[in-house]
Design goal:
Length: 317
């Protein structure tokens, strides 16, 4: 891992979140996705790219043939825009990345071969692949901000529970131990942090239903697990996470604050998947400032539009 993540001289650090690329076969739709990513990266010049799952699509079978016959090649093309620019990039997996022909273990090992990735495999004894923490430092090498990455799995492991997987108790215990480990001499004021994963937890529905939110909710419902494993409660208790960033629901892009944590959707970036007419693909941008407990966020769309103020949603109105 050759890259250190360091605040710039102007004390800012900018992250581009791409989500749900669903890269398949390098066809026309994948090339549209590539152009979107290139345009965003050239315009925003981020310090880090985060891919929040479903980077490749290995699930569907069409006429007896796999849609993605070369997952390693699809991964190479999906991350190419960041790699060729030398921008550090991190990844978490979604439910479609390893549905067939490749395992999570095989995919994480492929990811780790890239020169510019800052992804880590994380502890092998806990659930999933790619649970890890990154630190953003100041010019003197002192940690100022933490980024947590979780593997939110794919589908429910329990036969009588339908739907999606959840972040497991051993992952939550790992996060709590990491959070305690990096508190240093000021446990009452932990370093601020963000968290990235693919499948939203149930609190994304709660924040929309109960709090003022900003952005769009075009899905029928939040596609979270039917099981609430307690990750959000752990984040509230630890007091370090300021915001969470997910994908999975391609036509949701809202954010709202619940118990002091801003729950944010990305903006779906890939063209090889369902969307909504008039709802452009894009990316969510995040800007941190050294020694500030907060972040700015905005959207950059495929046509170059920058959205800094999303529509307000007030429950019950």
């Amino acid at each position: 891992m050759p890259h250190s993540l360091v605040f710039r001289e102007d004390r800012t650090f900018t992250i581009a979140q791409f989500t749900d690329l669903h890269w398949k076969d390098n066809g026309d739709l994948d090339q549209q996705t590539r152009r979107l990513m290139e345009d965003v990266l050239d315009a925003e010049q981020p310090d880090l790219v985060v891919f929040t799952g479903d980077v490749i699509y290995t699930g569907e079978v069409a006429q007896g043939d796999l849609i993605c016959e070369d997952p390693f090649g699809a991964l190479r093309e999906a991350v190419h825009s960041a790699e060729i620019r030398g921008i550090p990039w991190a990844i978490v997996f979604g439910n479609h990345d390893t549905e067939s022909i490749i395992t999570r273990e095989e995919l994480i090992h492929a990811v780790l071969e890239y020169p510019h990735t800052v992804t880590q495999r994380g502890p092998v004894e806990i659930s999933g692949e790619g649970n890890y923490r990154l630190s953003i430092q100041d010019a003197a090498g002192q940690s100022k901000f933490n980024l947590y990455f979780f593997d939110s799995g794919a589908y429910s492991p329990v036969p009588h529970i339908n739907g999606y997987d959840w972040i497991r108790s051993d992952q939550i215990e790992w996060y709590k131990k990491e959070s305690l480990k990096v508190r240093g001499a000021a446990p009452e004021q932990p370093l601020p942090a963000l968290a990235f994963f693919h499948i939203p937890f149930p609190e994304y529905q709660e924040v929309w239903d109960t709090k003022t939110c900003y952005g769009n909710f075009f899905e029928a419902s939040v596609s979270s697990s039917q099981v609430n494993s307690g990750l959000f409660a752990a984040m509230v208790e630890m007091g370090d996470i300021l915001g969470t960033f997910v994908g999975h629901d391609h036509i949701n892009d809202y954010w709202g604050e619940l118990h002091g944590i801003r729950l944010c959707y990305g903006r779906a970036s890939g063209y090889n998947t369902y969307g909504k007419e008039g709802f452009q693909r894009g990316a969510r941008m995040i800007r941190l400032r050294e020694d500030e407990r907060g972040f700015e966020t905005w959207l950059r769309l495929a046509d170059g539009t920058v959205i800094t103020q999303q529509p307000e949603h007030i429950p019950g109105t």
